[in-house]
Amino acid sequence: MGNWAELCKDILRLIVDQFSKIEDIAQFGAVCHSWRLVSVEKWHFSIASPWLMLVEKEDSDNRDFYCLSTKKVYRLNLPEARGRMCWSSYGWLITLGLDMEIHLFNPFSRSRVLIRLPPQPTLPNQYDDSVSPEYVRRIFIRKVILSSRPTLCVGNDEKCMVMGIFSEYRKLAFLRLGDEVWTPVYTPQGGINDVIYMNGQFYAIADEGKLVIVDISKPDPKTIEIAEPPKDYDIGARPYLVELEGELFLVGRGIFVEYVGVECNEPQSARETEDFEVYKFSFDDKKWTKVESLDNRALFVGANASFAIFSSNHPGCEPNCIYFTDDGAYGLMKDTARKDMGLFRMEIGEFDEHYVGPDILTCVCAPLWISPSP
After folding, report:
1. How many degrees, rounded to 5, is the angle at CA 364 between CA 109 and CA 92?
2. pTM
3. Which of 197, 230, 366, 374 could bridge across to 332 with cysteines, CB 3.0–4.6 Å?
4. Which residues, including other chains, have CB under 8 Å from residue 102's CB and lie 6 or more apart?
5. Which CATH architecture group holds 47-370?
6. Which residues pair with 351 in a beta bridge?
7. 163-189: pLDDT as tens digits
């Protein structure tokens, strides 16, 4: 048998053109480098459905991903994610391990170049020395997002930026890829609960639901309040900012929390989402308007950079729904009696499950949404 890796590109393109699902394209590209190059060409013309990254298996470098469209589980070898907390943005993973190193990589790229970001100890507002690495890994970072796909920045003057919410005070810090240090952002409004990049600007939700701009254009970056919270907004809700076709939306997630004991040597709280409320922001009058329907769109929130899709483009994804995962510090711990993960149907105000299966309980990193990209 000849060397399959030496097949000419024209033949490989004929083969990959037979695939309609992003999962098949990903598996094709995992064979070797030459097949990978052709699969990336096809990938750019395909629409990837969201995947749910499940928890790591014990003593294994493999990681399972559940695809909403196919209702199948796909396995990837990801030693880069083993034993590490993970966050996702633009199809990339940002990870923090017990070594306190922060890495950025694309789990769907065969080359999987690991980008080392400045480590956790270089960030401000550190814990004292008595705090264990396990606690720091789980608690210190709330969310990390990218301004764009790093691969789209090659040869571009505008470098991909990384913005994160860090420490018990929920403060912001950012960098441009290639920076050797994180740059802190002064936040007079208090802690930050979520952040998004849209239309060339970072926006964030501060305490009590206040909307702020993250101004990083000056030597001393800071947040600037631009809007009060929506009328009748539940300030105790978990907020998420989502972009829908260039417009800004706020999702409020009402959560009931109950202390249930100690697991993995840490206090454990069981969370249960009780409701969702959605608001649309007007940049003209700086006001929020409550939204009763998402129409053909579905939202994905959790430890990922929040995103939206058109359900009609993704078979298996329900319209007018919010898909959510447990992004609490102690979410989905082993042996917990409840899990806070599912979907919420806006029209009828009811909850359901989007994944029923193993690999959701963990002492490290709960499942999260990721949108595959080359």
Report:
1. 20
2. 0.86
3. 366
4. 94, 95, 96, 116, 117, 118, 119, 120
5. 6 Propeller (2.120)
6. 344
7. 999 999 999 999 999 999 999 999 987
